[in-house]
Amino acid sequence: MAAAAIDLAGLAKTFGSGEEAVRALDQVSLAIRPNEFFTLLGPSGCGKTTLLRLIGGFEQPDAGEIRLDGQPITDLPPHRRPVNTVFQSYALFPHLSVADNVGFGLDMLGWATQQKRRRVADMLTLVRLEGYGGRRPSQLSGGQAQRVALARALAASPKVLLLDEPLSALDLKLRKEMQSELKRLQTETGITFVFVTHDQSEALSMSDRIAVMQHGRVLQVGSPREIYETPRHRFVADFIGEINLLEGELVQAPGGAALQLGEQIRLGLPPGVTRAPGRVTAAVRPERAQLVAASHGNGALPARIDQVVYAGTDTTVLLSLAGGQPFRLRIQNRTGAAELPAPGAPVGIEIPPGSLQLLED
Amino acid sequence: MRARSGQAWLILPASLVIILFMLLPLGLMAYVSILEKGLNGGVVWGSHTTEAYLSFAFERDLDDSLVLNTDYLQIFARSFGLSAITTILCLLLSLPTAFYMALQPERTRNGLIFLVTIPFWTNLLVRNYAWILLLRNGGLIDGLLRDAGLSSGSLNLLYSNTAIVLGLTYTFLPFMVLPIYASLEKLDVRLVEAAFDLGANRWQALRRVVLPLAMPGIVAGCILVFVPALGAYVTPELLGGGKSLMIGNLIQGQFGSARNWPFGAALAFALLAIVLLAMLVYLLRFRQAPAGAAP
Question: Residue B139, Cβ neighbours under 10 Å: how many?
């Protein structure tokens, strides 16, 4: 495999000092591959924007190193890094026309006028804003301003494009549109994108890989599928999509590792569990569990239906387990599906062994 | 539309004051400027003449023919020159000051604004007399330099164009600092970061982003310094010592010792017209830039 486009090694950053000190980044190490759409995902204050600003050069790390294509860039000022940023507020220059905004970076590189004009026109075509070159940023809609910001950041063909929650100011419809637009741009330009967001569905639908962050640490890095289906941390499982948590005892049974819940229930775990027996938390997605009859037997969790919520494509069934813990289950609405039992009815929940995921705390 | 009729009375008092105490006297002055001067001051009502305006550049010879006299034009030129130098000096001093202020944390900034406005607390006359004490021969500056062996004899700082420019710059500096600071403070830091991000070094970011965006403040500051400097009276009177006249002193002289009211009024009007014209040109040019059409 080729060298990483961006190599982050042991980055640490603390803001403020003394008792007010905030540890924004705590020993973050990541390798972002070339031509990858890489997303930093986490709640506000998790350090994702700080990490982006470190790569952009707007902040200096307290410790650690940043390498771009193998070259250390930790000490380079922002204007000497082949990295461009799309800012959250777009930060278009209000006193310059759209064309001059897009051409700003080329001016700084000393491009000839003719060459620059052609490149600016190409960039505006790329973001589908042909003929907008003469406008002022104040004459643009939010979506158009967003495209200009993209064109400006891509004009000088940076090695890496940093995007700081670029879609958060757009309404839902426009955001969906820009998501596929961004993905298209990334594929067409072949530039490595590092994308910061707190929106998990955005992250899942656009990214090649996602790093989930919390409290200045990277908890898990993986493809959207890995992050969603095999979350390793309670926080990751909880932050992305909906999840049911089951506390139990890890036991080694003849058929492999299993989760023992109470006296009678024993749920099979996916193969390859190496953890020592003891108390553990396991997670299961609502759509992976199945509703079965109460008399199903030992493989199923006994539960009682609290509420049935119909939501068009699917139906969410809210249940209570024997111990009183809530459990959420989602069923696809298919033609000719059987009628669900009424609230209050005792039912069973069956969890296929592959759907259960052990979590680290 | 509805609001206009219902709220018009709100500006009535201010409008009355302006009409009674500004527009009417201005009209009166305009009229006085085309009247014949009275022998002992005042004017001869009903006797119209353009004599006052001719006096700008000509004087009557003994045989009543017009002869070129550039004395007054020189005073105009000097006023514009000194005001321009004052404006440039204020700008050069204010830009770094305003930058420094805008980059400080918020609490420090308020303290600095307070410091900038402190000179306003003292009467203008007192401040100008203080400059006399500093600049006069044997005064603080002259004395210190002589004691240090840096000069021999008297510097003759006072009663010169230098003294006037010093005094004017000192007086009008806050009028330049504050608007520039205000426009810098509003400036979005992310725009500067964006400039750095796109490959601009410090100088390029300053020239291509910060200065253009601070331009409204810079223009406002220049107008706020240049216009009052042009009509300054106290500072050239005290620090120029009557040797170096500016328009303000000339006008005062015509209404006072020279007893030529029409000429004084004509001078005042010429000054007003020039200032308005200059501002109009400047504003029109400046307005065009940000609203400019497609290249």
Answer: 17
